[in-house]
Amino acid sequence: NAGVMQNPRHLVRRRGQEARLRCSPMKGHSHVYWYRQLPEEGLKFMVYLQKENIIDESGMPKERFSAEFPKEGPSILRIQQVVRGDSAAYFCASSQGPNTGELFFGEGSRLTVL
Amino acid sequence: QQQVKQSPQSLIVQKGGISIINCAYENTAFDYFPWYQQFPGKGPALLIAIRPDVSEKKEGRFTISFNKSAKQFSLHIMDSQPGDSATYFCAASRSYSGAGSYQLTFGKGTKLSVIP
After folding, report:
1. Cβ distance A111 to A90 under 8 Å?
2. Which chain B residues are closer than 8 Å to A4 by Cβ?
3. B89 vs A60: CA distance, rounded Å
4. CA distance A31 to B12
5. A26-57, pLDDT tens digit by residue?
6. Is the preceding peptide bond at B44 cis, omega within 30 degrees of 0?
7. Distance (Å) from the C-alpha of residue B79 to the closest C-alpha of chain A?
8. A9 CB contacts (<8 Å, ≥6 apart)?
9. Contact B44, B104 (CB under 8 A)
10. Which residue in chain A has the smallest CA separation from B41?
């Protein structure tokens, strides 16, 4: 499967715990993006990363959220001290370049905070 | 501030009919307008996209109509089929140097149900 791979697909956390979501981009893609989808809402941009660099984190909440895309391994979106409002679907997308306009999305990670 | 407004929120169409979904945007710097299709439990998949240098783009049963002066664009699905039942999102972005096309602004989605 050469598509964008995300795991876990479903994650349940209690308030105050940490959530780690992983994303492996499509083969040949070096640009990764994270989007969040709240219930009954469209997707909202969070962060754009290239290997070892955060290019644009303008959509990321200032606290508790962080993202990385190390030289080896998947991109990780980390949410510390989760709250109920963090419950959402988190989608990763990848592209060959930032200006191609075509993003390929994974199937998402659905976080539920109890 | 919602920069891309999408309507209707839900749509029921008979098999064989035409499904029409509309979007309006505010930011005149947007120059890339894709439509994404999302099935339950899946990620959005690019369906068709248009840039403002053309007023219409057709791919199979799917057509985007674009009205730059009105800042509106729409998706038409001809001969709608039950397999088209999904949520459709319009989006917009700008692609000048320094910003990129990655920061898509999505509408809230339209849930389409095509009944036999």
Report:
1. yes
2. 43
3. 21
4. 37
5. 998 889 999 999 987 889 999 999 988 999 99
6. no
7. 26
8. A107, A108, A109, A110
9. no
10. A107
